[in-house]
Amino acid sequence: MGLYCASFRPDLHTHTKMMGPGPIMVLSQNTKRDSGKKVQLENINAGKTIGDVIRTCLGPRAMLKMLMDPMGGIVMTNDGNAILREITVQHPAAKTMIEIARTQDEEVGDGTTSVIILAAEVLGVSHQFLEEKMHPTVVIQAYRQALEDAATILRDTVATPIDMEDKVAVRKVIQSCVGTKFIAKWSDLACDIAMDAVKTVTMENGGKREIDIKRYAKVEKIPGGTIEDSQVLKGVMFNKDVVHPKMKRKIENPRVLLLDCNLEYKKGESQTNIEIMKEEDFSKVLEAEEAYIKKICEEIIAFKPDLVITEKGVSDLAQHFFNKAGITAIRRLRKSDNLRVARACGATIVNRTDEITEADIGTGCGLFEIRKIGDEYFTFMEKCNDPKACTILLRGASKDILNEVERNLQDALNVARNLYQDPCLVPGGGAAEMEVAHLLGQKAKSLNGVIQWPYKAIA
Questions:
Q1: Which of 77, 105, 110, 113 is catalytic?
Q2: Is the pTM of this model over 0.70?
Q3: C-alpha distances in angstroms, 339 versus 311, 350, 388, 449?
Q4: What mean pLDDT do residues 256-271 have?
Q5: Distances from the Cα of 187 to the Cαs of 140, 234, 235, 409, in angstroms?
Q6: What percent of the chain has pLDDT over 70?
């Protein structure tokens, strides 16, 4: 039985006798199906092209790329992932490469550029094997083997454990991440920021370390000032002002109460109609609303907090009650910010006012102050003792620079986090790579069959 391999072209109508009259189209009208050598070459070239795009972004001599996004904004960066995110590609193989960068960014946080360039090289060396009519699966099998061995070599022979208490050593590691980036000039500052932030948000849970930078280390970018003004706050800050101008703007050691309910009259979920016969009934309805607000406020005031922060609104009447009691209120705080405040000052977010207990009130914050930066008011809650969340305050000349600094810091934070979770070091400057190449080259000799060639090529 002869097997024919044809490349599908929709313009060649495929007749089939079985299914009744008329030609039957298997693929849609304008599908083009390539197979065989040509595709493999195209794939390799596509991968290489992507590698070439960001090749100049690697290493200490790296250059920044300026990209225009479709909205007309500018992105200035040398973070491989950020560049590839902005590029729109048609080719499936190139798309895969971009996914690699994204995965690397999510898992490790740094090294997005190197991953792409490595992958492009690996694709490049596989070209000659395909020329020599070696089957793709064999090549891949060799690659897999090489990957496993390389990982083992790195883990067992090359890596050295590192002491997390030794500030200098840790800083060196983070510096190697920051050194190739835009903030290399302020690398000491960046390293300190990353170390502080990660140390702050580390939670020890029964011997398991949980470090959530995304949620609890918020980066606040405020244009203006110089990069040297950036710092990690021992606490949190957010872009809000007090609700009533007479409220206190600075409180030392405040008792903080966090709410998740609105301090205004509850409107019904659906439409409610009230029929009123006599006009004194109308005033009764208004009194009921006021009494309700008064009741909530009294339940809150009973605990003598100095600062009430809620995620929902605060009505004028409630502001009046709070003002009389000398309580500062802040309203409509984002849920994520509220969680950070809770972790920083040790409060619990309460959902209903009648369920407040003494334990819910946070006393861990040392200073509550509202400062004006530029032309906006920012609320600072700092000098917290043992905060479990923090805000990184970034200052810089322009928005684009701030965005780039934020991306670089994100990388530094991730590196610091990885270190805290798995404190191991490999020597840099290509030393680790050469060692692995050497050991893989030796191991290749022990393999039999065709596999050893691609294996050597990787080395």
A1: 113
A2: yes
A3: 10, 11, 10, 59
A4: 79
A5: 40, 21, 23, 10
A6: 92
